[in-house]
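Let us work through a complete example step by step.
Step 1: write down the sequence.
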Amino acid sequence: MRFSLATGMLGILVAASLSVIPTANADSSSAKISETTVVGIHNTYDPSQYQYLAQALDNGASMIELDVWPDIFTHEWKVSHDSPTSNNNNCVNASTAADLYTGGANKDLESCLDDIRVWLDAHPGAGPIMIKLEMKTGFSANNGLGPAQLDASFRAHLPGRVFRPADLLGNFATLDDAAKANNWPTRNDLRGKVFVEAIPGTVEEGNPTDTLHTDVEEAQYLQSLKNAGNLGDGQVFPTVHGAVGGDPRDKYDAALRPWFVFFDGDASTWINNTGPWWYDANHYFVLMTDAQNVAPTLDDKNAAVDQATQRVTDLAKAHASVVSCDWVGLSTVLPLVLPRG
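Step 2: predict the structure and record it as tokens.
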């Protein structure tokens, strides 16, 4: 179903200045996270985006993206755009709020999580924050870097701060049932918390020898946790990467399909080739990337504030849960929290 972008403006609330940490609209705190649209920064960890990861949160971003590599030699999760064996990022391994803007960067994933935790501690009214993980080469479970070890990192470095698959599931039989019943928490319920999606990485998807991608491996892992009565250990939502017509979960085994309630894909593809209303009607979570490339295209770094605001507004009407962009300096756009649909 083709969706035409609307031109009307929705009512919005923006942050007045960088000196005030932006929070949700006054009328959105009681809304469920399935009922709002927020904004995030693509490749937030990249030093060309921000000198320090915390600055993205200061500017109001509700989603941060980390590219993750399993380094089988040092046995750690590296965070980098294109290096599987070295860190190249803006994470500093903060212990206090003052540490967030000083010291050496280029730390591992756990350090990025520490920075997020310390920032949240310093801003108790903020959040929720979505953490998007692009698992560049996928997991390496046979080398001790699989979904279980990733979960352990989140439990250790963001203890009690993660909205987990088990929290969505509640008393429902499947995540799909829970989403369709809109069993999501409100934004107010998730103050000070994060939730996490993981997508297959570009290297993984281009590797013909990789026959077990992140999405399938994460879903299988959650299924095994549930079968063992340990679903509460799971910290990460598996995600369908890429948007197609119909139900894109048809490509998975039937037993795995109910584990997918997160969908991530290019905004232009969602708008032109998919009926996003279906995802909203079932209360599924949709992240739309490269917002600037939806026609008419906008500058990918320095879009005019009114045009960027309009684009986010249009994509909210088109049922996005998160609008991903590279507008790092638009501190009146990044804090937007709009009605979805």
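Step 3: interpret the result. Residues 93 and 111 are 4 Å apart (CA to CA).
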